[in-house]
């Protein structure tokens, strides 16, 4: 051994009669203990200084990014670097005469340095992720997926670096071998690769954002997206259950995103009243007069009746039969009433499509479809508005001597209507 500080205890032990071998081990142990105590003290002091500096900066700065750095322990991990470097320098000093042990200790420290670097990178990326989520334009973006992709690459580099340290083979040779074994890697990381590709496609095509309401029948999902990661998309259903969907399923399968409705001025109402065709008839003059008491269609009935009567007089139409000439029907007047009712309803968006139309007759009856948009898009309010509209229309049908089709309650009714 060379003379120096690392021999002081060794020489003393030899003087008091300790064997050379035991003195060497005790000297090594004492030096290691001293090294770890020194490293711990450095770590503690540096962390106290860094914490004070970072907390003060976080309080004074206008941005929240440094706050997230502190929360995610970036300064804490950074404080470990200098003590680790001190231990690196101390290894040759402590392990004189123990070359193999010194080599193992150095490799352990190198691996710890790689792991520490990965933790710093992870915390830094997470801080960026948390900060971007506070910015409105990034709030609904799948930032978790991007962080996971970056961390996958970081962990791959880290793992190969550890192998390179243990085997003393350069990292580039591992990457070369990785290219040769890419088929095996693809098989092992199939889900992650699919998730990575899907996450990029979902983001670029803006298919799903956090907060979107989606319906995915294949997976039983019907609710709001609460998380998008590399592998999965979490949907909180309206019954408060959580459905997990593979990210690549959003690309490979069909699903419904209600964002367009939520961004629009209203939510669509598309529902039909099935009118019994037996109740459809022409209206007599007397009945038209009685319908003029209905305020919403009084102007229409006056104007329309004048035009029809004028046409029939000019063309000398024989009105002894109602089918001759032009006539008003109860279904036609009711259709106009429904249209006027919706146009005057405060909860219906007048700037979007508003239409009342007849569909093709069916064996059940004549569908009279209402196609409109509620001004309120919230689900509970939407259902209330739609029920309120149809409650009124169902109650209004008898005023026009119309009936809704209902299936017979017994077989006798099929033969004796």
UniProtKB/TrEMBL annotation:
Domain (Mechanosensitive ion channel MscS) ranges: 191-259
Pfam families: MS_channel_2nd (PF00924)
Top-level taxon of the source organism: Bacteria
Transmembrane segments annotated in the record for this chain: 28-50, 77-98, 104-125, 146-166, 172-189
Primary residence: membrane
Family annotation (InterPro entries): LSM_dom_sf (IPR010920), MscS_beta-dom_sf (IPR023408), MscS_channel_2nd (IPR006685), YbdG (IPR030192)
Entry-linked SUPFAM superfamilies: Sm-like ribonucleoproteins
Subcellular location, record wording: Membrane
Keywords from the named record: Membrane, Transmembrane, Transmembrane helix
Keyword Zinc (UniProt): no
Identification of the protein by name: Mechanosensitive ion channel
């Amino acid at each position: 051994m060379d003379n120096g500080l690392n021999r002081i205890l060794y020489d003393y032990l030899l003087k008091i009669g300790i064997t050379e071998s035991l003195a060497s081990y005790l000297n090594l142990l004492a030096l290691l203990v001293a090294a770890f105590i020194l490293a711990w003290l450095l770590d503690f002091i540096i962390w106290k200084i860094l914490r004070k500096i970072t907390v003060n900066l976080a309080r004074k700065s206008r941005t929240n990014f440094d706050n997230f750095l502190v929360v995610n322990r970036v300064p804490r991990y950074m404080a470990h670097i200098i003590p680790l470097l001190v231990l690196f320098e101390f290894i040759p000093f402590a392990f004189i005469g123990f070359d193999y042990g010194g080599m193992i200790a150095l490799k352990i420290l190198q691996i710890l340095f790689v792991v520490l670097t990965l933790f710093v990178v992870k915390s830094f990326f997470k801080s960026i992720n948390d900060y971007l989520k506070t910015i409105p334009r990034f709030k609904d973006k799948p930032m978790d997926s991007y962080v996971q992709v970056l961390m996958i690459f970081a962990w791959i580099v880290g793992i190969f670096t550890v192998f390179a340290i243990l085997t003393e083979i350069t990292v580039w040779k591992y990457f070369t071998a990785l290219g040769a074994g890419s088929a095996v890697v693809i098989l092992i990381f199939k889900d992650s690769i699919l998730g990575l590709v899907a996450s990029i496609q979902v983001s670029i095509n803006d298919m799903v954002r956090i907060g979107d309401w989606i319906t995915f029948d294949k997976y039983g999902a019907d609710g709001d997206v609460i998380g998008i990661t590399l592998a999965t998309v979490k949907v909180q259903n309206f019954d408060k259950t959580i459905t997990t969907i593979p990210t690549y399923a959003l690309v490979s399968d069909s699903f419904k995103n209600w964002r367009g409705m939520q961004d629009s001025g209203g939510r669509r109402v598309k529902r039909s009243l099935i009118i019994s065709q037996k109740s459809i008839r022409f209206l007599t003059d007397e009945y038209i007069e009685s319908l003029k008491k209905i305020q919403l269609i009084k102007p229409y009935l006056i104007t329309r009746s004048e035009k029809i009567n004028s046409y029939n007089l000019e063309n000398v139409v024989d009105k002894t039969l109602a089918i001759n000439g032009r006539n008003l029907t109860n279904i036609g007047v009711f259709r106009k009433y429904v249209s006027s009712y919706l146009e005057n309803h405060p909860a219906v968006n007048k700037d979007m499509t508003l239409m009342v139309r007849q569909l093709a007759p069916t064996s059940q009856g004549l569908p009279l479809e209402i196609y409109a948009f509620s001004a309120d898009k919230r689900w509970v309010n939407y259902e209330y508005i739609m029920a309120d509209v149809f409650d009124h229309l169902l109650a209004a049908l008898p005023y026009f001597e119309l009936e809704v089709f209902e299936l017979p309650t017994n077989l006798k009714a099929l033969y004796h209507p």
